[in-house]
Amino acid sequence: MPRRVALYARVSTEDRGQDPELQLVPMREHAAAHGWEAIDYVDQASASDLRRRRGWRQLLEDAHRHRFDVVMVWKLDRFARSALDALHWLEQLDGYGVGLKILTQDIDTTTSAGRLVFTVLAAVAEMERELIRERVKAGVERARSEGRQLGRPPRSAVEDLRRWPEVRDQVMAGTITRAEGARRLRVRYGDFLAALNAFRNRGGAERTAAEFSQSG
């Protein structure tokens, strides 16, 4: 009997220009190449907004009914926004006898090695987001201590951090130095290296800049 796989795609409400097909097409191709039967589930919502993630809720109901064997997602952040959430959903799927496959990071939790890597990646991804949150918080506190008006200046800390994927790719491609990358984001050199190492440790160093722009 062919393996049955649920393909889950999610785009954020803040990224209305994103097309879930960019996630679904390569997953469908992967499933077809292995002769698997695929079912699509799609959400346009924040990962934390479970009420609006109707596709995800339906997927969980179908998992409980054993309508598929594995859930496939494009990237870790399409599945959950924190290590705690990721491990919670993984345990729930496990209880239904359903595995999880993350396509771009080649993780399959139906294997012991895949489960270990998934746990590590989930923790590293949360650490990277925490570094960014701390950078924004530090920027706000510094502005207050200097008596500057808070709001949306032309070059706010948040706007700097939006350039992280662009600057990160330039550093990894060798077009700018790590010191220059930290300067462009206006962060401490040590913080920049920590975020860069966290990204590399979760497999990013093996992917090209073009793939980063496609996966959002």
Describe the structure.
The chain has 216 residues and is of the alpha/beta class. It has 2 domains: 4-110, Rossmann fold (3-Layer(aba) Sandwich), CATH 3.40.50.1390; 124-215, no CATH class. 55% of the residues lie in helices and 12% in strands. A 5-stranded mixed beta sheet has the order 2-1-3-4-5, with helices on both faces. It holds the Pfam family Resolvase.
Task: Write a brief caption for the model.
This protein has 216 residues and is α/β, with parallel strands linked by helices. It contains ten helices and five strands, in the order E-H-E-H-E-H-H-E-E-H-H-H-H-H-H. Helix 1 links the parallel strand 1 and strand 2.
What is the fold's blueprint, element by element?
Layout: E1 4-11, H1 21-33, E2 37-44, H2 54-64, E3 70-73, H3 76-79, H4 83-95, E4 99-102, E5 107-108, H5 112-145, H6 157-161, H7 164-173, H8 178-185, H9 189-201, H10 209-215
Parallel strand pairs: 1-2, 1-3, 3-4
Antiparallel strand pairs: 4-5
Helix pairs in contact: 4-5, 5-9, 7-8, 8-9
